[in-house]
Amino acid sequence: MGICYIVGAGDCAPLDFSPDAGDLVIAADGGLRRLDAAGIRSDLVVGDFDSLGYVPQADALVRLPVIKDHTDLQEAANLAFSRGFRRFRIYGALGGERFSHSIANLQLLGSLAERGCDAALLDPRCTVRALHNGVLRLPAQASGFVSVFALDDLCAGVTIRGLKYTLENAELRNRFALGVSNECIGEEAEISVASGTLLIVIEKNSR
């Protein structure tokens, strides 16, 4: 199974991907404008179309009610998951006009990790990953700041190696940001958690 690319209406990193056969590209409401501007064809358009402002003409379209339990982007991810996709690269999920949707998308990222998915939110300023009961490795050429937060009340067995500040079999809690503002140091890094879900924010170098 390929990669599912979802593009929303928030602040957006450059859409520099080229879908391969077997990949799925979903426009979540206003994300359709970004895909059109980048010359990337959407395979599916999903939304209530409040941010787009009109109902587009599309070969594959899922129109959602305005009053619903899931955001457009969450519904797009759920549709892709139901089709068997487990790798997600999500653009336009942070920033934008509504901060509440950024929080919802971070929760979505954690939910995807807990369902066994490899997912990332790609933003102009950072990449955000979630890690559930597993290991994430960063290559030696990675640069910038790396922050690790507990999404659960308690994340146990947290180990961080290869960054400026290390941890060994520690506990992180979601009321104390012990893991904020670590740094890449030119070594391969490893972040692992034995029990729980971590949110990992990799920010570009800026002070």
Concise account of the structure shown:
The chain has 207 residues and is an alpha/beta fold. It is built from three helices and 14 strands.
Report on the structure:
The protein is of the alpha/beta class. It folds into 2 domains: 3-124, Rossmann fold, CATH 3.40.50; 131-203, Jelly Rolls. The protein contains 3 helices and 14 strands. It has helices at residues 31-38, 72-82, 99-114, and strands at 3-7, 24-28, 44-47, 61-63, 87-91, 118-122, 126-132, 135-138, 145-150, 154-161, 167-173, 179-183, 189-192, 197-203. A 10-stranded mixed sheet has the order 4-3-2-1-5-6-7-14-9-12, sandwiched between helices. Strands 8-13-10-11 form a 4-stranded antiparallel sheet, with no helix packed on it. The termini are far apart. The model has no long low-confidence stretch (mean pLDDT 94).
What order do the helices and strands come in, and which of them pair?
Blueprint: E1 3-7, E2 24-28, H1 31-38, E3 44-47, E4 61-63, H2 72-82, E5 87-91, H3 99-114, E6 118-122, E7 126-132, E8 135-138, E9 145-150, E10 154-161, E11 167-173, E12 179-183, E13 189-192, E14 197-203
Parallel strand pairs: 1-2, 1-5, 2-3, 3-4, 5-6
Antiparallel strand pairs: 6-7, 7-14, 8-13, 9-12, 9-14, 10-11, 10-13
Query: What is the typical, i.e. mean, pLDDT?
Result: 94
Task: Assign an overall shape.
Answer: elongated
Q: What's the CATH C level of the largest domain?
A: Alpha Beta
Give me the number of helical elements: 3
> Which spans of ≥5 residues are poorly predicted at pLDDT below 50?
none
